[in-house]
Amino acid sequence: xxxxxxxxxxxxxxxxxxxxxxxxxxxxxxxxxxxxxxxxxxxxxxxxxxxxxxxxxxxxxxxxxxxxxxxxxxxxxxxxxxxxxxxxxxxxxxxxxxxxxxxxxxxxxxxxxxxxxxxxxxxxxxxxxxxxxxxxxxxxxxxxxxxxxxxxxxxxxxxxxxxxxxxxxxxxxxxxxxxxxxxxxxxxxxxxxxxxxxxxxxxxxxxxxxxxxxxxxxxxx
Length: 221
Description:
Elements: H1 2-23, E1 34-35, E2 43-44, E3 47-49, E4 77-82, E5 96-102, E6 107-112, E7 118-124, E8 127-132, E9 139-144, E10 149-152, E11 157-162, E12 168-174, E13 182-183, H2 184-189, H3 197-204, H4 208-218
Antiparallel strand pairs: 1-3, 2-3, 4-5, 5-12, 6-11, 6-13, 7-10, 7-12, 8-9, 8-11
C-alpha cells in the first residue's frame, strides 16, 4: 500500500508539473531567437528558433525608444511596444517593454493584458492609475509622480491617465514576450463583425440609440 501511495503521489506531482510548464515554460536553452522560416527552425514556445550558429548581436537589439510617440489622437496617448515581433531575441524569455507617451490629460484607456503582468514606471508627469479586480470588482487606484512605480496584475482591467498640464512619459515592463492587449471599449463596441446590439443593450442597460452611436464611434476605420 505504501508503494501504491508513493506512486500515486509521484503521478500527481508529475501531472501538476506538466500543467505549470504548459502554462509558462522556462527557456530550455540560453536563447531562442524567433525566425519566420519554419524550414530552418525548431518549434519552441510559439516561435521557431533561428539556428544558433546564425544568431548575431542584432537579434538582441532594438533602437528607437528615445523617439516620442504620436499622441495626436482622440485619447491623447501612444504606446510603442517592443515585443517578440519587434525584437526576435525576446523569444521564450518571458519579457517585453513599452514606451508610453501622453499629451496633457492624455489617457491610456481601460484595457487588459491577457498574458502579462505590467510594471509601470513614471519618467515625467503626474498620473492617476488603477486596476479593477475580478468579481466583486474592487478598484485599486493611486496618483503617481516622477520615479514612482505601480504594478498591474496579469489579466486585470487597468488604466493610466495623465492628470498634469504637461506631457507625460512612462515605461512599462511586461511579463510576456507577447502580452497582448484588449482595449475594453474598442473590443466591446468596435469588434468585427459587430456584437449584436441587443446583447449590448441588455448587458450595459443602455438605450438602443446609445449603443448604435457607440458602435459607430468605435468602428475600425
